[in-house]
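re: that chain from earlier
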Amino acid sequence: MRMEGKSKSEITEELVSQLKNMFPDSSQLTFIKTYMGATLARKSSGDIISEFPNIREIREGLNNLSNCTNIADLRKLRDMKTLIFDLQTYYCRRAGYLEVGLNKELPFEQDVCDIMDKIDELAPPNFRKPFSMTENEEINGYKLFTIDDRLFAYDDFLEYQKLWESNDQLDKSTFEKEYNKIACADWSKMQPDGTSFGGFYDYPEGSHERENAHMLTRNQNCEALWDLPYPKKFILETIKIGCSWRRESVRRSNFMCEWMKRKINQLNSSI
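^ sequence. v structure.
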């Protein structure tokens, strides 16, 4: 297909025309058109935003942002942040990922920053006190990452702390089942140290290891995560966080766990 001199809408229309032959099922085609941003009667960004079910609640919350002045307002701020993230996901699906990716813009981005600033203001002073971690440090056999600021926002930290301090004990079998439910595909290619492929993928073609590198790598990562000396429920949470950040590896999970450990110790030392 020639694309020179064609507008984006012309290109997507031509792609849809070709896809009709590949996907006779109309539901499949609708799904593809949505995620390509190829709907022919595209609505404006303002229209899409105004159709979001909770847009009124978001606007009212933003108008009252200055009234959030104490720790009791933290839940309101967290709920508002979550609603905006939901709106952004809704926007991406309605406008098409292709368009959003090209423009690199999402609605209410500055408002999210304002909410995060307000959450930061409400956090206790000792939480805002940074400490440094560097990639020169090695903990549990994994290098850390360099950071001299907070890894998590205060509202997220409080949720993660509940998992960290949970009395629920997970046995290895339950841990493995949960891991396989939530671990994204990249856990089947990332080495525990955070490098891509290598390991079983370096074995000769035709070998058992090379032919099964995908599953062997995934299982290897699960075993390495289980061996980390941190609360298992929080380790599982780091898998979700890593996948959402596109930063999934045992090294990254180990780093998040060590940061949580040090931050909790820092807070406890001030009591």
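Residues 169 and 270 are 28 Å apart (CA to CA).
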